[in-house]
Q: What sequence folds into this?
């Protein structure tokens, strides 16, 4: 029995070690490359630890590649879209989680369909729509389009979160004379802050990471978002791996901060709320 | 679910029942529904309509019936794309389910220490920007200075540099690896959330009855997380079927269209060859499969939410 237990421990930690290695090595490799001087970059035997760490790639990134402009654009789009999303989605989710009305099941199903419609199906019609509105090449086009993937997701998440808030609190408020709007905004909204915050984080992440729509809609240098600038560091077969990896590291920082901040809530996504095991 | 019976006073009752509530609900839903109608339903209908025309960038569209679909079915590249998409999706999804299950079981183990730290670390590939993971792997796969060739050589698996994107098979393996690396945490965390609801007493009873760990997994764990696994698998299948970034940025669908999938072919025909009608016809081809899969996902997840 005891040997069996030990074998179990060894097996468990062996699996864990393998998974951690495979998960973390690429991330480690990004960070190492970001500070590795070009002279060490293409050695036959790669350096797993840079001998002469350098910030040269970071300064190329912000100098030659003007990465700060991309970050600014990405921040604007991600923040505006997340803010709009949370307003739309909270109202919709409240209705879906708390109110009984005709067509509720259909709307709920529609939200799920909307969440799962792939970008690959929508990018051409959306591109044509944006061009005919005359807002192609602007951040506005992304701000208009990104809620197509953030709103369905956020609504779905918030519906399951709102259901976890006891109805009795609202009943009490209504008996005390609150109307439905007041009870929604003054009772339910404060209580659902953890759900709202993690939904905001995920919406922000989805916008921050988005590439396909941005690539299709934006061709003006001035309006390019961070992922576009990253992808443009590859010109033909010439790869500027140093600055590219420095950019990858910088691009990951906001996401890592947000996830650290909200990591206890970052579980599961869609399936957490949608299904009973 | 709804507090109708719990509320005694007539005044509050009207807030939960009757016409008032329809109106209030539609008011709250209006912004979202109008937005989704304008930016999702309308474009989708447009897509279907445009697939029956010869629309090209900058030119007017004329109705041409099924011409685009016939062109596609006669197009050897499109037929190859169907096969590639199926291979890519099948390999990646199966690997993600298996590895996600392993990840969930490890994270759920009672013996594991620092569980939440481990969970956060293993979740990283899913949280990082897609482009970061794609370029990290592209750089590791590189034949000059790349880490993977070096490590494999050191371990004795290969004896010369491999051009990871140079042959069809290797290119397919590479894009699948990146997709699996990135997508496994979604499965793992989803399954973990299911595992956490499994009744622990059953394991005790089973081990008293002499069932070994493998038997317990098949007879107790799997049946109880079946729904979560199924739902997460369907969602991940939908995403993988329509994956664009990984393939576009790693191989551009090459070599020789060997990793061309629906989304990359649709982009190539639409934006590089400027043939929008043909390009959206590819999307429309994928819609029946998509609707079928979303239908199952909806049924699975609504059994809880729509009561």
A:
């Amino acid at each position: 029995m005891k040997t069996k237990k030990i074998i179990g421990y060894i097996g468990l930690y062996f699996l864990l070690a393998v998974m951690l290695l495979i998960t973390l090595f690429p991330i480690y490799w990004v960070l190492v490359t970001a500070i590795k001087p070009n002279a060490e970059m293409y050695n036959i035997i790669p350096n797993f630890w840079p001998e002469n760490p350098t910030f040269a790639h970071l300064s190329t990134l912000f100098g030659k590649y003007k990465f700060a402009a991309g970050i600014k654009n990405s921040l604007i789009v991600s923040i505006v879209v997340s803010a709009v999303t949370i307003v739309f989605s909270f109202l919709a989710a409240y209705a879906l989680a708390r109110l009984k009305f005709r067509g509720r099941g259909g709307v709920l199903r529609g939200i799920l369909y909307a969440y799962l419609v792939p970008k690959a199906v929508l990018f051409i019609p959306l591109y044509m729509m944006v061009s005919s509105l005359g807002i192609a090449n602007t951040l506005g086009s992304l701000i208009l389009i990104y809620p197509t993937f953030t709103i369905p997701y956020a609504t779905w998440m918030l519906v399951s979160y709102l259901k976890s808030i006891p109805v009795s609190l609202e009943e009490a408020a209504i008996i005390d004379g609150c109307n439905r709007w007041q009870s929604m905004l003054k009772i339910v909204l404060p209580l659902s802050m953890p759900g709202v915050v993690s939904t905001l984080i995920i919406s922000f992440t989805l916008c921050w990471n988005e590439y396909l729509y941005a690539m299709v809609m934006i061709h003006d240098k001035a309006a390019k978002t961070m992922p576009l600038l990253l992808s443009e560091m590859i010109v033909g077969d010439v790869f500027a791996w140093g600055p590219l990896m420095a950019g990858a590291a910088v691009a990951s920082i906001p996401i890592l901060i947000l996830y650290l901040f909200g990591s206890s809530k970052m579980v599961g996504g869609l399936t957490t709320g949608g299904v009973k095991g | 679910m709804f507090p109708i019976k719990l509320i005694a006073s007539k005044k509050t009752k009207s807030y939960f029942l009757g016409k008032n509530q329809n109106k209030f609900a539609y008011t709250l839903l209006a912004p979202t529904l109008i937005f989704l109608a304008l930016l999702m339903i309308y474009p989708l209908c447009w897509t279907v309509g445009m697939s029956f025309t010869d629309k090209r960038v900058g030119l007017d569209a004329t109705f041409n019936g099924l011409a685009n679909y016939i062109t596609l079915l006669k197009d050897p590249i499109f037929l190859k794309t169907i096969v590639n998409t199926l291979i890519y999706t099948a390999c990646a999804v199966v690997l993600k389910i298996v590895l996600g299950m392993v990840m969930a079981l490890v994270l759920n183990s009672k013996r594991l220490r620092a569980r939440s730290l481990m969970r956060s670390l293993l979740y990283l590939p899913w949280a990082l920007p897609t482009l970061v993971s794609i370029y990290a792997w592209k750089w590791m796969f590189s034949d000059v200075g790349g880490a993977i060739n070096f490590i494999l050589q050191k371990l004795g698996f290969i004896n010369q540099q491999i051009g990871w994107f140079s042959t069809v098979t290797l290119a397919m393996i590479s894009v699948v690896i990146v997709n699996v690396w990135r997508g496994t945490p979604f499965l793992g965390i989803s399954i973990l959330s299911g595992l956490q609801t499994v009744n622990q007493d059953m394991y005790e009873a089973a081990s008293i009855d002499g069932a070994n760990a493998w038997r317990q997994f098949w007879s107790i764990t799997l049946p109880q997380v079946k729904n979560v696994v199924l739902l997460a698998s369907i969602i991940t299948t939908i995403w993988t079927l329509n994956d664009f970034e990984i393939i576009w940025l790693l191989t551009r669908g090459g070599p020789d269209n060997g990793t061309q999938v629906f989304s990359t072919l649709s982009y190539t025909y639409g934006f590089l060859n400027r043939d929008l009608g043909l390009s959206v016809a590819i999307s429309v081809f994928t819609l029946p499969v998509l609707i079928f899969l979303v239908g199952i996902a909806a049924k699975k997840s609504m059994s809880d939410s729509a009561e």
In short: Chain A touches chain B through 111 residues (CB under 8 Å). Chain A has two domains: 2-54, 66-274. Residues 266-277 of chain A have pLDDT under 50 and may be disordered.
